[in-house]
Write a structure and sequence with these properties.
Elements: H1 3-14, H2 44-60, E1 67-71, E2 75-76, E3 85-86, E4 90-94, E5 105-106, H3 107-110, E6 116-120, H4 126-130, H5 132-141, E7 145-149, E8 159-164, E9 170-172, E10 181-183, E11 188-195, E12 200-206, H6 216-270
Parallel strand pairs: 2-5, 6-7
Antiparallel strand pairs: 1-4, 2-3, 4-6, 7-8, 8-9, 10-11, 11-12
Length: 271
C-alpha cells in the first residue's frame, strides 16, 4: 500500500472526536501581557525537541480546523487575574478554531482548556514541572493530560505523564516496557528515541497502530524514496521489456538462419 495515502487514511481513522467549544476565538485581551523577556527554549536540545514535536502535531491535526496548537505562549485561566498564567512548551486545545493565531490563550473567553500540555525539563524549571505544575495544569486549569520529558541525551531519561481519574484525583500514567505512554486525550502513543548525532532524546508521537507521525522533512524524504522506488520499478520494467524484445528478435534471427541453412542443404542434396 502507498505509505502516503495509507497515513492519510489512518489520520482520519484515529483523529479524536470532540464538540466545538462554546466560547469565541480571542486573539488578544488588553491588559494581559502576551510576552516576557524569557527565550523560547532553554537550550538547543529543547529547541530541537519543541520544534520537531510542534511540527508533527501541526501536520497530524492539519485536517481538523478545530484544533489549536500553542508553542511557548501564555495561557490565562482566571479572568481578571493576570497572575493566573502559565506558558507551557506545547499545548493542544480541542474545539476551538485553528485560525486566526492568538497572542495568548484565554480559557474563559474561548470556553475551553488545553486537553494536553507538554513541558521539556530544564535545570531552571524541572522541580516546578515535576511538582506544583501537575496540580496547576490538571486541577486549576482543567487540562486532561500533562507530560514532562528530558530531551538532553547526556542527562538521565525522564518521560512521565499524569491525568485525572474519574473521581477527580490525579494519577500518574504507567509506562509500557519501552518507556512509552499512551495519551487517551490525543489518541496518540509517545516514546522517545536517542539521536546521537544531535545528542537529543527526541520524544515522538505515533498513531495507535504504531505508525510514526513524521516531520515535513521526513515526509519529503519519504516522498523522494517513494518516487525513487517508482522510477526504479519503471526502469526494471523497461529493461525487462527490452530484454524480452531482444530475446524475441534473437529467436527470429536464429529461426531465419536455420531456415537459410535448411534451404542451402536442400539445394546441395538436389545437386
Amino acid at each position: 500500500m502507498d505509505t502516503i495515502n495509507d497515513f492519510e487514511f489512518k489520520q482520519r481513522k484515529y483523529m479524536p472526536v470532540f464538540p466545538k467549544a462554546n466560547g469565541k476565538t480571542t486573539v488578544y485581551i488588553e491588559g494581559y501581557p502576551c510576552e516576557d523577556d524569557e527565550p523560547m527554549s532553554a537550550t538547543d536540545f529543547h529547541g530541537e525537541q519543541i520544534a520537531g514535536l510542534y511540527e508533527q502535531f501541526k501536520r497530524y491535526f492539519a485536517i481538523n480546523e478545530l484544533v489549536h496548537i500553542g508553542i511557548d505562549s501564555f495561557i490565562y485561566y482566571s479572568e481578571g487575574d493576570i497572575r493566573k498564567c502559565v506558558a507551557p512548551d506545547i499545548h493542544i486545545v480541542f474545539g476551538v478554531a485553528k485560525y486566526p493565531l492568538r497572542r495568548s490563550f484565554y480559557t474563559w473567553a474561548e470556553g475551553a482548556a488545553p486537553v494536553a500540555v507538554f513541558e521539556f525539563l530544564s535545570d531552571a524549571t524541572a522541580r516546578q514541572d515535576r511538582n506544583e505544575k501537575v496540580g496547576v495544569y490538571l486541577n486549576d486549569i482543567g487540562v486532561q493530560e500533562y507530560f514532562i520529558h528530558q530531551p538532553e541525551l547526556k542527562k538521565p531519561a525522564e518521560f512521565r505523564g499524569w491525568r485525572l481519574d474519574p473521581s477527580g484525583g490525579i494519577v500518574e500514567m504507567e509506562p509500557d516496557a519501552e518507556g512509552g505512554l499512551f495519551s487517551e486525550a490525543l489518541n496518540l502513543y509517545f516514546r522517545w528515541e536517542e539521536q546521537h548525532h544531535t545528542h537529543v532524546r527526541l520524544l515522538r508521537p505515533y498513531l495507535p497502530d504504531g505508525t510514526p507521525i513524521t516531520t515535513s522533512l521526513e515526509e519529503h524524504h519519504l516522498r523522494e524514496a517513494a518516487q525513487a522506488r517508482t522510477e526504479e520499478e519503471i526502469q526494471r520494467r523497461q529493461d525487462a521489456e527490452k530484454f524480452a524484445a531482444a530475446e524475441v528478435q534473437r529467436r527470429k534471427d536464429a529461426e531465419s538462419e536455420l531456415e537459410k541453412l535448411r534451404t542451402q542443404l536442400a539445394n546441395l542434396q538436389r545437386q
